[in-house]
Amino acid sequence: MNAEAVQAAHRFDVERAGIDAAGSRVVLVLAAVSILFLIVGSVFGVIASFKLHMPDWLADYAVTTFGRARTIHLNFVAYGWLSVAGISIVLWILPRIFHTPLRHPIMAYIGGVLWAVGVACGGVAIGAGWSDGLEWLEIPWQIDLVLALGGLLMAWSAVSTALHRNVHHIYVSGWYFLAGLVWFPMLFFIANLPGLHLGVQQATMNWWFAHNVLGLWLTPLGVGTAYYLIPKIIGKPVFSYSVSLLGFWGLALFYSQVGIHHLIGGPVPTWVVTLSVVHSVMMFIPVIAVAINQHVTVAQNIWAFKQSMALRFVWIGALMYTAASFQGSLEALRSVNSVTHFTHYTVGHAHLGAYAFVSVVLFGAFYYMMPHLTGKRWPWPRLISLHFWLTVTGFAIYFLALTVGGFFQGIELLDPDVAFSDITRHIVPYLEGRSLGGTMMTLGHIIFGMHFFALLLAKRSGSAGTV
Questions:
Q1: Which domain range does residue 143 map to?
Q2: pLDDT exceeds cutoff 60 at 282
Q3: Is residue 301 part of a domain?
Q4: Distances 133 to 125, 191, 395 between C-alpha atoms, Å
Q5: Gap between the Cα atoms of 364 and 349, Å rounded
Q6: Minimum mean pLDDT range among 79-93, 231-245, 270-284
Q7: φ and ψ at 381, to 5 degrees?
Q8: Among 376, 44, 78, which residue's Cα sits nearest to residue 217?
C-alpha cells in the first residue's frame, strides 16, 4: 500500500462518523480503573524501594514487607495499569482504523470489570501471603481464572470488531494489537497450568513467560499505539509502510525465545541459552525497522513535537523502546551478562522497557484520546507539562542510579576480595537515588490521575482540541 493510500485512509473522519460513541463508556471506565491501579501500584513501588535502604521502616506490617510490597507493585502495574490502559486504547483505536463501531461493548465492559476484580483480588491475596511464588506469576491460579474470563470477553470484542471492519487493509497498529491479543492468552494459559511445570523446567517456563509478557504483549500495545498516534498527530504517514511490516514480523519471529538469557549459568541446556542469545541479537532487525519509521517521521516534522504534549510523551516513549531493546540485546551477551546478572542493573533495564517505553506512550495516548472521547479540554494544560518533566527527570535519576550502581555492584560481585557486606553498603547511595526518582515519578502519576478525573468531572467545552 503506497503512502498516498495510507494518507487517504487517515482522512476518514471517525468523529463525524460517530465511530467512538459505541465504545466510549467502556474505554473511559477501563482508563479510569487503570489509573487507580497505577497510583496504588506506584505507592507500593516506592515503599519497596525505600525498604531496600531503610529495612526497618514499616517492618511491623506484613503487607509492607519488601517481598509483598514489591510483588503487589509489579502485579498492579503490569496487569492493572499497563494491561488495562493498553486494552482501553486498543478498544479505542481498532474501531477507528477499521472504520466501524466497537462490537459487543457490554461484553468488553463486563470483561474489564472481571479483569479489574481479578487483579485487585490478586493484590489482596499477595498481601495476605497467598501467592504462586513465581516472578510475574504470583497471582494464585484460582484467581487467574477470573482474569482469563475477563480477558477473553475483552479480546472477543476487539476481534469481533476486526472481523466486521469496513476496510480491506489492516494498518500496522492493527497487526500489533491483534497479534498481542492472540499471543498473550497462549502465554497466560500455558504458564498458569497448575502442577505442569517443575524444577528446571519451571524456571525455564517462568522466564519464557515473564519476558514475553513484555515483548509479545506490552510491546505490541506500545508500538501499535505509537504507530497510530505519531502520524495521526503530525497529519502525515509513517516514513515507510513496508519497513513497518518488517518490524512486526521480526518481533514475531525473534522475540519468543529471548527470555532464557536470564538463565545464563543455570542448570539448563547450553543450546537453549545460546538460542536465546541469538534471538536477542536478531532483535536488532525489528527494532531498527521501528526506529527508522517512527523516529524519521517525527524528526522530519519536529514542529509537531514542539507543539503537541501528547506527541512528546509518545515519541520519548518510542525512543525508549529503541534504547531498551538495544540494551537488552547487548545484556543478553554472556560477557555482559556475567557482570549485570543478579544486580540492580537489570531492574533499571526492566523499567526502561516497561515504564519509559510502554507507560510513557500510554500517557501520551491518554492525553490525545481523552479530549476526543469526552468533548472536553484538559482543565489545566500546565499540569501536563509538570507530569512530563516529573516523569522524564524522575526516571532519568532512577535509571542512572540503578544502571551505574548495578554495574559497579556486578564488578564487585566478581571480585572475591570484596566482602558481600561491603558491596551492600556501597550500593546504598544508588538505592537512595532510585527512591528519589521513583518518588518523583509517583508524584507525576498522582498529578496525572487528579487531572484525569478533573477532566471527567468538568463541564463539556465547545471544542475539545488537542494537546
A1: 3-457
A2: yes
A3: yes
A4: 12, 13, 28
A5: 21
A6: 231-245
A7: -55, -30
A8: 78
